[in-house]
Amino acid sequence: MSYLLQIRNLKKHFPIAGGVLRRSVASVKAVDGVTLDVLKGECFGLVGESGCGKTTLGKTVLRLYKPSMGHIFFGTPNDTVNEITTLEATNPKSRRLRRLREQYDISMYRGRDLLLLRRKMQIVYQDPTTSLDPRMLVKDIIGEPLIAQGIAKGEEAKKMVIEILERVGLSERSLYRFPHEFSGGQRQRVAIARALVSRPDFVILDEPTSAVDVSVRAQLLNLFTDLQKEYGLTYMFISHDLSIVECISHRVAIMYLGKIVEYSTTEEIFEKPLHPYSQALIASVPVPDPTQRRERAPLTGEVPSPVDPPVGCRFHPRCPLAMSVCKQKEPLLIDAGNQHYVACFAVNREIS
Ligand SMILES: Nc1ncnc2c1ncn2[C@@H]1O[C@H](COP(=O)(O)OP(=O)(O)OP(=O)(O)O)[C@@H](O)[C@H]1O
Ligand SMILES: [Mg+2]
């Protein structure tokens, strides 16, 4: 098993300008210290309530946003990542650290390096009506990345476009049509073709089935699984629909207010969620059998503002198990083999 993506203490803060001089007076801490690893060839699910920072995390990883802090490694050997992490802690000003980061840490990439990276990492958004340019023909929508990245042009590009179109289930006749001439599901297929035409290794699927009805959703999910096998893709599947994430992901991370609360294999997360937030989130999934009752109370209240997140454990104002220590100390993220979790004070009380 090797890692494709390794994220270390990643932060993305959006400044809020205020006053006459429009100085930065505060910031939205959309992503606030995320550390996680994505394995080559897996579908990594990312779930959490609306506004908890999933899209921002995805866009920062793809370098569509410049990170405020932290490291992102893509296809970097494990030893190198460990060396960088050690140097960061022991010798942060060393020349070797700077050189290694410039070479491997994509949070430092600029210009041509960034352009080359775009080929390998792509994103499919929730709503193809807004993500596809309505004035462009399908052949140009899909062919554009090939030309922009200097991969192919002319007849060769057209051949590649037709090939991927057919692969996502659309015919050659779609080439000279505009996005509005398609149904929602077909439009999403165009967006998938555009993302895959440059043959990326990693694709972020950001709520890719939220804008379509249930039957189309099932077809798209099958298509994602088939394409993953055929092209050896690695996915990050973002959604707040836990039942979809459960059926498509190998592993799942639960995000809350800019941080990862826990991540593990899909089975572990759904059968034995460790953190009170994961437990409550999973308890909010409707049970198909009305005679069965959930053991735990589902979530109440709303996600607090990421401008001023709660001190201590971010979940404490909504947590049914909160104790006084939760308001003062921030719990740590623990790595325990497959499982990575925030060591909740209340849950771990019996263990410690
Ligand atoms: N460009 C931006 N400038 C300022 N704040 C932003 C920006 N983009 C996102 N935010 C804020 O960052 C927080 C996280 O937003 P984000 O869109 O990443 O959440 P999400 O988990 O994807 O939500 P959803 O499930 O609704 O898509 C929100 O409070 C949002 O208002
Ligand atoms: Mg989002």
Task: Produce the secondary structure layout.
Layout: E1 3-18, E2 23-39, E3 43-47, H1 54-61, E4 69-74, H2 78-90, H3 95-104, H4 111-120, E5 121-124, H5 128-131, H6 138-148, H7 154-167, H8 184-196, E6 202-206, H9 214-231, E7 234-239, H10 242-248, E8 251-256, E9 259-265, H11 266-271, H12 276-283, E10 333-336, E11 339-342
Parallel strand pairs: 3-7, 3-8, 5-6, 6-7
Antiparallel strand pairs: 1-2, 1-4, 8-9, 9-11, 10-11
Helix pairs in contact: 2-3, 6-7, 6-8, 7-8
Bound molecules: adenosine-5'-triphosphate and magnesium ion.
Shape category: globular
How many individual β-strands? 11
Helix content: 25-40%
Neighbour order of strands in the largest sheet = 5-6-7-3-8-9-11-10
Can you characterise this structure?
α2 packs antiparallel against α3, α6 crosses α7 and α6 packs parallel to α8. The two termini are 32 Å apart. With 352 residues, the chain is of the alpha/beta class. The protein has an 8-stranded mixed beta sheet with strand order 5-6-7-3-8-9-11-10, with helices on both faces. A 3-stranded antiparallel beta sheet has the order 2-1-4. The protein has one domain: P-loop containing nucleotide triphosphate hydrolases (Rossmann fold, 3-Layer(aba) Sandwich), CATH 3.40.50.300. It is globular and about 65 Å long. 35% of the residues lie in helices and 23% in strands. The site of magnesium ion (MG) has 3 residues, from α1.
